[in-house]
Amino acid sequence: MSVSLCREDGMYEGGRELQATWRVSRVTLDSLVAIEISVLWSTEGKGDTDLHVHHFERLDEAQIRRQGLADSQLLRCELPATPLSYHGRLIRLRWCVRMRLFLSDGREIVTDQPFYLVAPRTNENRPSSIVGDEPRRASSRGPSQS
Amino acid sequence: MVRFPRPYSKKRGKRFIGTELRSLLWETAFFSGVFLVGVFVLSLVLISELATWHELHPLKEFTKLHPDRVTPRELHGGGLSSWIFGILGVAAIGSGAAGLVYRLVRVGASSERRSAFAKRASSIEIIVPGDEGVERLPSVPRGISLTDSPGERLTYRLAAESSAGGELVGPLLLALLWNAVWFVLLAVVVLGFWYGSPRYILAGLLIPFAGIGYWSFRFFLSQLRRSAGLGPTIVEISDHPLYPGRRYRLFVSQSGRLRLRRLTVRVVCEEETVYSQGTDVRVERYEVFAQEVCAERDVRVDPQAPWEQQFTVDLPPNVMHSFVGDHNAVRWKVIVSGEARPWPSFCRNYPVVVHPPGLPPKRSPR
Known about the structure:
Chain B: The chain crosses the membrane at residues 21-47, 83-105, 172-194, 200-217. The structure holds 2 protein chains of 2 kinds. Chain A is mainly beta. Chain A has one domain: Immunoglobulin-like. In chain A, 5% of the residues lie in helices and 47% in strands. In chain A, the strands form 2 sheets. In chain A, strands 2, 4, 5, 7, 8 and 9 form a 6-stranded mixed beta sheet that branches. A 3-stranded antiparallel beta sheet of chain A has the order 1-3-6, with no helix packed on it. The longest helix of chain A has 7 residues, at 61-67. Chain B contains 8 helices and 9 strands. In chain B, the strands form 2 sheets. In chain B, strands 4, 5, 7, 8 and 9 form a 5-stranded antiparallel beta sheet that branches. Chain B has a 4-stranded antiparallel beta sheet with strand order 1-2-3-6, with no helix packed on it. At the A-B interface, loops of A face strand 3, strand 4 and strand 5 of B.
């Protein structure tokens, strides 16, 4: 089985759409019970693992037979703005498209296709002005003004 | 000139004769004493009363009291004196505890802050906040409570991570409980001598127990002195939440009567992980980013002239945003720490939230 992302560099901006294709080969229809496709993030590192599924699809036996395994299937979902991919000292946060096959003999086969969720590109350069430092009126000074 | 403490002195209008800290310590010691005397008196009355009950053989064995044999008539259970002393004991316990709580609640909180808390508590509505923000930025703390307080110099006044009152609860409970038990045992010993069946071993044990009680009470007073003497730290920021690649203004004020060897203000990004190791749950933290915006030596702070400074903070463009998972987190905070004398060193954290770049900033409350 294989999962292919629509972008070669595997970098997706938060809030944008992710498109991927998946395909199962060298497995017969009779040996498949279900297929699960999910877009998720998980943490790695010293701490216990956090995992959050953003998008989830499950195809049961009847749906698999109806669609067949010959053609590639399309996965499309809108990515969230956060959390962004991160590689730190104690924590690594990675996004991936995970595909899980449930076989009739009870086995499961899992494959991950990692990608990077990055911040949207902005054209603004580093500002010289200070954020929130607009001129304030003398009457607005004081803790009682909210 | 050294001013010696006087128990009685003439009131001089609204002026303080001593320092506010000294009055706090004396009031705390007074209310603690009232509480413990109440425990002692109530213990005397209860033990004296219960020892006359025939069903309480274990208590009789413990106290070795045989009141039927030697009890003077005026102390015999059920009399008016027992009721009077019992009520006095309960009243002393209640007034001591109430006075202690009332006095300690005011440590580290100004009257304006208490009033604001009371006002906020009265205006709480039973409405669950909408999940709009959660859907917009999943796994990023919303930090609403961080921006509900407008600043005096800059837009927002940041809230400290933990209040000073939390540091006092443990020492206070230890001192009060230990000394209360000590006074109960003292009552047992006194009554044993009174009834002519002394317990010498228990009386001997009271001496080391008194040492522990003295140490626990002294530790509590030193903690109280530390919390009350440092004075509040105020941190204000020009905007919130923060965005990487932008520049912010930071205002820090330290009050109190202090002589600081060193005062530092840092903006820190910290990774925090929680993991299980056997049956233990451990937390590990690591600073992945730290920007020191101030490091001053030999700072003097007076009650009339708090130390106040404004700084500029440049957040790098490629830093991680705030993130909170079930077991992992990336936290941003402003840390104000000082090496003080005669007080111990202090370190106060003021959490902030950093959003990922590319999002429209929130409107200022002004």
